[in-house]
Amino acid sequence: MYEKLAHCPLCESEQFENKIICNDYLVSNESFVIVTCTSCSFEFTNPRPKKEFLGDFYQSESYISHSNKVTSLADVVYRIARFFALRGKLKLIKKYYQKGHVLDYGCGTGAFLRTCKNDGWQITGVELDQKTRVTAQDNLALPIFEGIEHIEKERSFDIITLWHVLEHVLDINLVIDQLKKRLAKKGKLFVAVPNIASYDPKLYKAQWAAYDLPRHLYHFDQTTIKKMMKKHQLKLVDTIPLHLDAYYVSLLSEQHLISSGVKKGNKYINAIVNGYKSNTYAKKHNNNYSSLIYVFEK
Fold first, then answer.
1. Which of the chain's ends, N or C, has fewer CB atoms near its CB within 10 Å?
2. What is the pLDDT along the chain (298 residues), one digit of tens a residue?
3. CA distances (Å), 16 to each of 13, 42, 214, 288, in order?
């Protein structure tokens, strides 16, 4: 059911050390380990579920990016945040292209693609999870692909986005290469990932919701994400904070603390306070926000 990586996905070193053990709060309640490569400092989940079993760890109505259901107040908060985030993401890609062809890799139920479609963009989506892919197809009334290899080989994209997706991809080096080949000559690749150098993991430690084991296979900071992309001849153009993520991730982390019996109190108030602290910390510490969007080009 599980596999253990013998080499670092970033530098191929065989030397790692255990960093932290975290529980899966969403599905299995099992414990998983994050290791640090002693050569390049890249952090990744090891061991991890094999490909044929990984999908089992997404089978929860609480995994909201794969569901249209609202089952809690936290889901309501997520949807409100997503409403503003989607418009912010559209505004961001329009900084580089007013209109064009966008590929959303790991498109979930298609919310971002629908926002782009309504603005006049040509849209293409990739979603690995079969059930979620069907939902996205119903929402968008167009085919959603299971993998980028199923898209016509001659098709290229002005914008490719991975909104909190890269950390989930099993064969990360293969996928980055595939995406690079599909990027138009002046195209831009947008990658949003949690930031392990932010205030949040220092505060919440093993209960930090953005570790999200075992679904998150890789755990980036600003240095390692740039190293990963440089390995594939992609250069950094811009780095943009996701301010709202600090509040939502803090809310989920507070839930983890309460469910673990570590803490009591009002999780919503605590999340607001700690989200504010996280963003304040980032202003003083190299823009290390809870989550960051990185823009890359060839």
1. N
2. 999 999 999 999 999 999 999 999 999 999 999 999 999 999 999 999 999 999 999 987 655 454 455 555 556 666 677 777 899 999 999 999 999 999 999 999 999 999 999 999 999 999 999 999 999 999 999 999 999 999 999 999 999 999 999 999 999 999 999 999 999 999 999 999 999 999 999 999 999 999 999 999 999 999 999 999 999 999 999 999 999 999 999 999 999 998 877 777 789 999 999 999 999 999 999 999 999 999 999 9
3. 8, 9, 18, 24
Q: Report yes or no: 162 and 128 within 8 Å, Cβ to Cβ.
A: no
Look up the pTM and report it. Answer: 0.93
Which backbone phi and psi does 286 adopt, to 5 degrees? 55, 35
Domains defined for the chain, CATH in brackets = 56-297 (3.40.50.150)
